[in-house]
Amino acid sequence: MTGTEMFETIRYTADVVALTPAHEVLLIQRGWPPHEGAWALPGGHVDPGETSRAAAARELGEETGVHVIADSLRPIGVWDAPERDPRGRYVTVAYAAVVPVGTTITAGDDARTARWWPLDDLPPLAFDHADILSAATAPTP
Questions:
Q1: pLDDT at 141 > cutoff 80
Q2: In Å, what is the CA distance from 74 to each residue of 18, 68, 69, 86?
Q3: CA within 20 to 30 Å of 33's CA: 63, 86, 128, 137, which one?
Q4: CA–CA separation, 13 vs 51, rounded Å?
């Protein structure tokens, strides 16, 4: 860069695609803007001193009452498109978890509600969460 250097504030987040063997995915209905009332994957900010994997497990528990061991989460990928969040630059690391059919859920934190959805009958998803879900459910080569 020439002249005055510019730095962008980047927020670090983690999201979880929680799936059951019955082809259901756990979604939350967002309780806050942006996308208030829309369905989304559980997730949120990575706290200072925390790994994205630990944040993903924590956020899943806080938002849905589903608790998993962080090391059991499978990395899906990184989503970092500059316009993926209307609040500014957010970079997320997404993880997948497989949980038993009938796992009890309890909405908490910033989720209005949480619900299991069949993969073949999903509502529109907030942010780029449809892309994350597609990557998580794509057949492995």
A1: no
A2: 10, 12, 11, 27
A3: 137
A4: 10
Tell me if 140 is assigned to some domain. no
Range of the domain at 94: 10-134
Could you report the per-residue pLDDT of 30-89, keeping only the tens digit for each? 999 999 999 999 999 999 999 999 999 999 999 999 999 999 999 999 999 999 999 999
- The reply to whether 3 falls in a domain is no
Total domains present in the chain: 1
Q: Kindly state whether residue 123 falls inside one of the protein's structural domains.
A: yes
Cα of 105 vs its chain's centroid, Å: 16
- Has this prediction a pTM greater than 0.85? yes
